[in-house]
Amino acid sequence: xxxxxxxxxxxxxxxxxxxxxxxxxxxxxxxxxxxxxxxxxxxxxxxxxxxxxxxxxxxxxxxxxxxxxxxxxxxxxxxxxxxxxxxxxxxxxxxxxxxxx
Length: 101
Known about the structure:
Distance between the termini: 46 Å
Radius of gyration: 19 Å
Shape: elongated
Number of helices: 2
Mean pLDDT: 90
Structural class: alpha+beta
Order of helices and strands: HEEEEEEHE
Helix content: 10-25%
Low-confidence stretches: none
Strand order of the largest sheet: 1-6-4
Strand content: 25-35%
């Protein structure tokens, strides 16, 4: 019960451990960019991802400078394990997570 669990500390009552459900997952923040200057068309992910949020910085048709000066979007991706997070991170380093058209 979210409301009860949230309100208890404000009325000086202890939390009930059974009401607390911990979801254990990892979040990776990544700035989408491209290695060379070019016009942004679209972003296509090569593998399925669990996207928590995407904050666009550029829109289709914008001329994007080469990384690190040009930025397309910030993404927040969720992983269910530390190993999956590491694999996802490595794919960003090798630029194999997505393609930019």
